[in-house]
Amino acid sequence: xxxxxxxxxxxxxxxxxxxxxxxxxxxxxxxxxxxxxxxxxxxxxxxxxxxxxxxxxxxxxxxxxxxxxxxxxxxxxxxxxxxxxxxxxxxxxxxxxxxxxxxxxxxxxxxxxxxxxxxxxxxxxxxxxxxxxxxxxxxxxxxxxxxxxxxxxxxxxxxxxxxxxxxxxxxxxxxxxxxxxxxxxxxxxxxxxxxxxxxxxxxxxxxxxxxxxxxxxxxxxxxxxxxxxxxxxxxxxxxxxxxxxxxxxxxxxxxxxxxxxxxxxxxxxxxxxxxxxxxxxxxxxxxxxxxxxxxxxxxxxxxxxxxxxxxxxxxxxxxxxxxxxxxxxxxxxxxxxxxxxxxxxxxxxxxxxxxxxxxxxxxxxxxxxxxxxxx
Length: 375
Known about the structure:
Elements: E1 5-9, H1 20-34, E2 38-45, H2 53-56, E3 64-69, H3 74-86, H4 95-107, E4 112-116, E5 132-136, H5 141-148, H6 156-167, E6 172-175, H7 178-184, E7 192-195, E8 212-217, H8 222-235, E9 245-248, E10 261-264, H9 271-275, E11 277-282, H10 292-299, E12 304-306, E13 322-324, H11 328-340, H12 342-359, H13 362-373
Parallel strand pairs: 1-2, 1-4, 2-3, 4-5, 5-6, 6-7, 8-9, 8-11, 9-10, 11-12, 12-13
Helix pairs in contact: 5-6, 8-11, 10-12
């Protein structure tokens, strides 16, 4: 088969770019396009966001798209709720989606099939085993659910077993985090793990004249909400009033109106905002996977102030352009050090650039993907 064709399932409209997951998937499709793949995409309307005609007709990153409406039956919803109570891994697939996936797989000769998230791993049961299969993990789901759980009796073992069983169905697993690969890989000996973090083109910038001293970028997920609350309650009062702060994304909903804070609920293009910002803050208090906003900041050569959680998934914890602080006082001091000490700023700017080029540039990540798709 000379033509390289791939069938991909991704449950969201990635064009909205509302969080790091969509950005990473956008980059993955860009890779397939650059490698001359024919790309057929199956997605869902109404799961977390919607596909309108404007997005469906773009077709710049896929050749064909099929969109199913989010329509699990009452029976399936009840089963899912019961699985949550039992501590099982949820299966988000539903009959009409599985049927559509099977028909698509049978309609053409695919070299590869890629499913996003272990929640949808049962889709693989619908196709022949001679197609090379890939699961894009995105997150360590068991750990993520544990961190989000408000219950003291979270059944870690049962969900972990389900997650391992789901991953083991596939020939390859794309992991966003080397740390998570090290945990999961020994339990899935049949599946080959490939570390595929998010990648960005290099956009390093040196200069002055910044509009913002601090930039926050983030969706409204639980960990971002907790982080921005921690910052506003404990760090913000320690900063001088002349420090200019920009908040971009759904996090704006959780920040009050302040004289020195600019709220940007939605930005179609973050490029100019990054270029106009001096340092990036990532005050996370939880989460799994890789913090895309940290890597994106590095792609601009920007120093980052973050907590230990912000370095989750980052392969090197020091000399990477990030200042680490887990207390309010330490966080504010790290910010002021970068704002007031030119030498310290330039040192961390240089470290961010070097670290990015070594691990997260587009060419580096593409080489990893080539081991699966171009071998």
